[in-house]
Design brief:
The chain is of the alpha+beta class and 387 residues long. The chain has 10 helices and 17 strands.
Length: 387
């Protein structure tokens, strides 16, 4: 039986094998509550009505021949999880009502009940359902947005990965790069820039933080440094100009560290500037390690700072290891730092190996140390060998 069917109003299915109770509840909900009402005298008929109609709430008696209230509740919970169920039970069946609540009913009504009690209960349960459906819809929208953003970030990360050169060989130097991002997007940057047939620009930097903001700033800085190298600027001039330009024009407030060098394959020399970056390590042919000189602060720390250029010789058979602090600050599950000492031990023990084996040993040592600990900071590595 159907009473007062209006599409914009909630629909309540009343299930009871007692004809008088079925008629009374249906009339009350339709006339006093203003709901659309469907009525069923059996669990079997209720299952058919559920399949044929959009129903918001079911009020069902527990004790009925054939498909009883608990069986109907089980069917609704499995097939229609967004439909709420109120159990109607006599005083002596409270234990069964409690069991029904455990199985998924949202509330119960005790027979006999006052019309005002039933109307208040139905209104309260429908309000709870409305809020729940709204929260689910909002959550689904947020999840869809997050999935879309994650997809966008992953695509952006793939583009960023393509900016990173895999290596270089020429003008008396062989270079291998390695890059590991803590998130989809990184604040680290590294670059290799050919400057004619005899010179190579080498760039490594680390914008504080990681993620979208850091990656955007990284992209700006990397492109500006590359342009200045191609234009023939000295390394200290690149840093001095970049520091002032970013302060004055971009108003960037994220400090970053960087190493910029120009290798000259005719002179076997390295002109370089360091802005707050971990000092690169030169490995002599005999395996001795030497941290090359550093003396300047990070960029965007001091306005109008004049950076210094250094020069060192670097001979065939020597290697140069340049990295961001994510390498030495990587942690294992116990929270211990990888640290400079572990890195130095690997560099010394593997110094005589080929460049590929040498880089592989650094990666293997870090992986073994970290075990399954997450990568908390971006890791960039450039290893060069003079040939």
């Amino acid at each position: 039986m159907e009473i007062n069917r209006e599409p914009e109003k909630p629909t309540v299915l009343v299930v009871d094998d007692e004809e008088e109770a079925l008629r009374a509840i249906g009339t009350l909900l339709a006339r006093k509550g203003g709901y659309n009402v469907l009525s069923s005298a059996s669990g079997e008929e209720a299952i058919r009505l559920l399949a044929e109609n959009e129903i918001d709430l079911v009020i069902t008696d527990l004790r009925m021949p054939g498909v009883d209230g608990l069986e109907l509740l089980k069917h609704i919970s499995r097939e229609y999880p967004t439909i709420f169920v109120i159990i109607s039970t006599a005083f002596g069946s409270l234990d069964s009502a409690v069991d029904a609540l455990r199985r998924g009913a949202v509330d119960y009504l005790q027979k006999p009940n006052k019309p005002s009690e039933m109307l208040a209960k139905v209104a309260e349960v429908l309000e709870r359902r409305s809020k729940l459906l709204k929260e689910k819809a909002e959550f689904a929208a947020v999840r869809k947005m997050a999935e879309s953003q994650t997809s966008d970030l992953q695509r952006a990360g793939a583009i960023q990965q393509r900016w990173i050169p895999e290596g270089y060989e020429g003008c008396g130097i062989k270079v291998i790069t390695r890059f590991h991002s803590a998130e989809a997007l990184s604040g680290d940057f590294l670059d290799l820039v050919e400057l004619g047939k005899d010179r190579l620009g080498i760039v490594v930097g680390d914008v504080v933080g990681h993620g979208l903001a850091a990656s955007l700033q990284m992209g700006i800085v990397q492109r500006l440094i590359r342009k200045d190298l191609i234009d023939g600027s000295q390394t200290n001039s690149i840093f001095t100009y970049l520091n002032n330009f970013l302060f004055d024009e971009y108003h960037m407030d994220s400090v970053f560290t960087a190493f910029v060098a120009i290798f000259d394959g005719k002179e076997y020399s390295l002109n370089y500037s360091i802005g707050g970056h971990p000092p690169p390590i030169k490995i002599h042919a005999d395996g001795k390690l030497e941290y090359i000189e550093t003396s300047c602060p990070g960029l965007l720390m001091i306005p109008d700072y004049r950076f210094i250029e250094h020069k060192t010789s670097i001979e065939p058979g020597e290697k140069l290891v340049i990295y961001t602090d994510g390498l030495v600050e990587a942690r294992n599950p116990s929270g211990d730092l990888f640290g400079e000492e572990r890195l130095e031990k690997i560099l010394k023990s593997e110094s005589g190996k080929s460049l590929e084996t040498f880089v592989g040993a650094i990666e293997a040592g870090l992986t073994e140390f970290r075990e399954n600990a997450p990568v908390l900071d971006d890791i960039s590595l450039i290893v060069a060998e003079i040939v």
